[in-house]
Each structure stands twice: as structure tokens, then as C-alpha cells.
Amino acid sequence: MSTTATLTFAFRPLDPLKDAELLHSWVTHPKAAYWMMQDAKLEDVERAYMEIAADEHHHALLGIGEDGAPAFLMEHYDPAHRELVGLYEPEPGDVGMHFLTPATGTPVHGFTRAVITAVVGRLFADPATRRIVVEPDVRNTAVHALNEAVGFVPVREIQKPEKRALLSFCTRERFERAVAAV
User: Fold this and answer.
1) Which residues contact 151 (CB under 8 A, 6 or more apart)?
2) Whose CA is closest to 181, among 173, 75, 55?
3) Contact 180, 118 (CB under 8 A)
4) First to last CA, the chain
5) Phi, psi for 151 (deg, rounded to 5)
6) Cα separation, 57 vs 79, whole angstroms
7) Could you tell me which residues are beta bridge partners of residue 126?
8) Angle between helical axes of 111-124 and 172-180 (0-180°, round to 10)
9) Which residues 6+ apart lie within 8 Å of 7 measured at CB?
């Protein structure tokens, strides 16, 4: 059994100004290359997350670890209005999702899987959420494996302005089956 099986996380809204320095260290780290903010300055991170905070269709949260410290970043969005407009036909109850675990010098086995499980579980806690949509870079094989482990099914590659992405969906039923199988 993984030591992360007992990990629990809380969530809080991200504060674009108070959390910018922490986020900047996360999103500019070489291991966060797929976040596409490698060269961002602190002000760029503040601006990007202030835009998200002001957007009714896009939200950013911090996952808080058991020690009370920020442990990861979670974003969710309405794909009918952000990120995927015109790239697929959204259905009622679709929610788009991104997550980022920061680089660490002391990785914990199973941590990222515990994070994605918590993120997907949080989104499905809303009864209005019927399906979660993700669009990671096609080259990000590590996240494809994580997505599949929690029930995502790859559908097709799509071309976004900033990347070639693998469009994948997860229904509540597939997530529940995947989590029960662990």
C-alpha cells in the first residue's frame, strides 16, 4: 500500500498577489515546462492569476497539505467559454481541469496520483459536473498515464494555439471505478 493512500488535501482559492511568489517558483521551474511559463517574471504570474481571479469561467485553487502548507495548484474552467472553444463540442456538465505539483528534491511515491485523485474528486463533488475534460501536451506522457489511472479516456489529438494536445474525458463512473480498483 502506498504511503500516499492516507494523504488528504484541503483547497482554498488562490490569492493572485499573496501567492504569486510561491506560484512563480513553481511555474518557472524546469520540471514545469508543460505549464509554459518558464520565462515568466513575478509580475507576469501575478497578472495571469489576477485575470483568472476576475474570470467567471476560470478558477484557481491551491491544494493544501496536511501540514497546512500549499502542496499543488489546481485550475478548473468552463470549456464552453475557455481553453477549448471551437476545438470540441462541449456537453452540459463538462468541466476543464489543470493541475501542477511543484518540483521537489524529496519526491514522495504516489504523491502526484494522490493529488490528481483529490482534484478529480473535488470536481465530481459538484453534482453538476458530469464529465471532466483535459488537454495536456501530447508529449507529456507522465500526465497521460496519471490521467488514465484515474479514469480519463484519450479521445483525439487537437491543435491549440500553444500546443498539440491530447483531448481526454473522464466521467464520474469511470473515476469511481478507477479509484475503487486501487
Assistant:
1) 120, 170, 171, 174, 175, 176, 177, 178, 179
2) 173
3) no
4) 9
5) 110, 0
6) 8
7) none
8) 140
9) 65, 66, 111, 114, 118
Under the phi-then-psi rule, with left for phi > 0, alpha for psi from -120 to 50, and beta for the rest, what region is 86? Answer: left
Q: DSSP letters along 92-146, please?
A: TTEEEEEEEPPP-SS--TTHHHHHHHHHHHHHHTSTT--EEEE--BTT-HHHHHH
Q: Minimal CA–CA distance to 100: which of 8, 6, 3, 14?
A: 14
CB-CB contact of 119 with 131 (8 Å): no
User: Three cell numbers at 82?
Assistant: 475557455
Share of the chain above pLDDT 90, in %: 80
Match 483531448 to its residue by C-alpha cell. 167
Cβ neighbours of 92 (radius 10 Å): 8
Q: 62 by DSSP, 3-state: which?
A: strand
Element (H, E) at 69: none
Amino acid present at 28: T
For the four alpha carbons of 161, 162, 166 and 167, in that order, the dihedral sign comes to negative
pLDDT digits (tens, 9 = 90+) for 37-89: 888 899 999 999 999 999 999 999 999 999 999 999 999 999 999 989 999 99
